Amino acid sequence: MPSDIEIAQASTMRRIVDLAEEQYGIPAEHLEPYGHYKAKVSLNYLNSLKDKPDGKLILVTAMSPTPAGEGKTTTTVGLADALCKIGKKAISCTREPSLGPVFGMKGGAAGGGYAQVVPMEDINLHFTGDFHAIGAAHNLLSAMIDNHINHGNELNIDPRLIQWKRVVDMNDRALRKITIGMGGTANGYVREDGYDIVVASEVMAILCLATSIEDLKQRLGSIIIGYTNAPIKERKPVYARDLKAEGAMAALLKDAIKPNIVQTLENNLAFIHGGPFANIAHGCNSFMATQASLKLGDYCITEAGFGADLGAEKFLDIKCRLTGLTPQVVVVVASIKALKHHGGVNADGYKVENVEAVRKGIANLDKHLFNIREHYKLQAVVSINHFYHDTEAEISVLVDHLKETKVPGFVAKHWAHGGAGAEDLARAVVAAAEGCVSPYGLVYPNEAQLFAKVEMIATKIYGASEVTASDAVKRKLAQWSTEYPNFPVCIAKTQNSFSTDGSKRGAPTGHTVEIREVRLANGAGFVVAICGDIMTMPGLPKVPGACAIDIGEDGKVIGLF
């Protein structure tokens, strides 16, 4: 079978302006094309859709993944194509890829095989420049902080208490801790600083939760960059608005806030907008794109990053809680290789039949399904993402188990056959969505204390027995619970396990979740709890994906996947 990029480059794309008008009646004057095959949708047009009824919101998540992922984006695209094939008006709504994983280990986020969004190489490399704009807005604020201190520090900012780092859209471990201002007085003052990856920026989270330009500016202005130089009890937060930075930051984001549209290989419209990671951020695409998809289609198929303990939890407990979105069905992607992985098999055994490992690894999937059904009160459908090396015996073990537990589950072959390979899955999703009558639940109430919110997620979703933290962390959480009531929590932890130890496979219980650090994302409207050894600036693997990527004399990118 051809590679993903060969399939994408051989596809026949339609001009995006024509496709959008034909399929969904979006007038050409409300589209801002970036070439022939990608465009941004104007905010005026999005505002005109507000009174239209919502379609049904379908979340695609997964069991705890292997390092290469289990195919959430592929399933999101394949399911949307399949729904269109069976006569439904469906739009996929996904996140933009970060250059970090594109050139690192995991790869991009445009789907795979015959379930992709295109133009694939454009989407994975810069796309419409949204991430560059987000990085520029973030780093503008960083520059304005240091500039303010250099020119007299009227706000009395304590350089030791600056919370705002710099960002770049690349995996670069050497930038985690840096020293700035060296070289004499002309270069400012010397202090410790560091870089996060763009997808961990609070500006990214703000863009993805904003409902309008005015809301965007208000949120940007509410960013807390640090604290004043005073005794502990007299310190006051310093906001981006105190530096008068929010207007210029919003100006840099004037195009990035507009959702992007592209198309699938089967020429169905697709939204791609925003891209926070789910292990170090809230892991969901923008509210604006999701809302637009709901207004334009019968079904909005969206995804949230990594396993359901991360992406789905944050989609429901943060994004839906803060924006009022209401999901109807959760599709949980499982793969035989991931089941074998959680059954104790390493990468060199993924393609070797091992029925017992599959049976053992089902515990991981079961825990995710239990969380979705019991804690969130949502209907779950399992998509068994088919790989060519799966055997009938292995698949039968999972299919039989799902029948016993009364969870709809279907082998989906959209990677090999496009939408036609996921029609059974699509019909099951329609049946579940049409049968959805009760509202979904949440893991913790708004009014709970922040530490208690972390405890509820850890014990209910992760299966932990306790949460630990230093006295300093507990004091911060207690103080913020009073000063910022009703804020949800965004837990940053490894995606490889329910626990904070990535080596613990399956469904471990009785483990301890340690909160190493907490950060207040006041503009985004949540508190980040960093647990275990997770980093907000990843590093490249020994052999980065970048080593295989090149461009030919004809201008075509090769080796992307």
Structural class: alpha/beta
Return the domain count: 3
The total of helices stands at 19
Uncertain segments: none
CATH superfamily of the largest domain: P-loop containing nucleotide triphosphate hydrolases
| Integer-rounded radius of gyration | 23 Å
The CATH first-level class of the largest domain comes to Alpha Beta
CATH architecture of the largest domain: 3-Layer(aba) Sandwich
* Mean pLDDT over the residues: 95
**Number of distinct beta strands:** 24
- Could you tell me how far the N terminus lies from the C terminus, measured between alpha carbons in angstroms? 13 Å
Largest sheet composition: 12 strands, mixed
Strand content: 15-25%
What's the overall geometry?
globular
- Please name the CATH topology of the largest domain: Rossmann fold
Helix content: 25-40%
